[in-house]
Amino acid sequence: MKNTVMTSVFVFLVALTVALFSQNKWLTFINTSFLLAQPLVIIGGFRFIYEKGFFDVTISSFKRLFRSPVERYYADEQTDDGQKKQWGASFFFAGLFVTLATLIFSYMN
After folding, report:
1. What is the pLDDT of residue 15?
2. pLDDT score of 74
3. What is the pLDDT of residue 76?
4. Burial class for 89, CB neighbours closer than 10 Å (0-12, 13-18, 19+)
5. Res 96: pLDDT
6. pLDDT below 50 — which residues of the chain?
7. What is the pLDDT of residue 53?
8. Residues sharing a CB contact under 8 Å with residue 53, sequence separation 6 or more, in sequence order
9. How far apart (Å, rounded) are the C-alpha atoms in residues 11 and 102?
10. What is the pLDDT of residue 71?
11. Per-residue DSSP letter, 1
């Protein structure tokens, strides 16, 4: 939750900084916020899906398929779930929050 709020605040601060140097400050703030939030939604969404294990079956199947016969004989199934860094959800929800806020701001204009 803290990372989500910090990311959202950072996006709004960057958009505010860009808007201060333009003619139409409010419109530039809305557009910049929206454009900065979209990569967060896309990248965070894909990473969030990956972190939840959606592709684990496919990845393990390809690993088994392309092993040599010797590796197949000696292979031990090991999971590396503890090594995954969990940052997809915070990026996704921060981008989603900023996107919804910019939609509300655009109707207030």
Report:
1. 96
2. 67
3. 56
4. middle
5. 95
6. none
7. 84
8. none
9. 11
10. 67
11. -
Residue identified by tokens 């960057």 is 14
CA-angle at 69, arms to 66 and 75, nearest 5°: 80
The string of DSSP codes covering 24-86 is SHHHHHHHHHHHHHHHHHHHHHHHHHHHTTTTHHHHHHHHHHTS-HHHHHH------GGG---
Q: How far apart are CA 58 and CA 64, in angstroms?
A: 10
Owner of token pair 């557009």: 31
Q: Angle of helix 88-108 relative to helix 2-19, nearest 10 degrees?
A: 40
- On whether the CB atoms of residues 94 and 7 are closer than 8 A, the answer is yes
| Other beta carbons less than 10 A from residue 78's beta carbon | 5
Residue 29 has what pLDDT?
Answer: 96
Q: Are 94 and 40 in contact (CB under 8 A)?
A: yes
DSSP output for 74-90? H------GGG----HHH
Take residue 56 and report the two structure tokens written for it.
């684990």
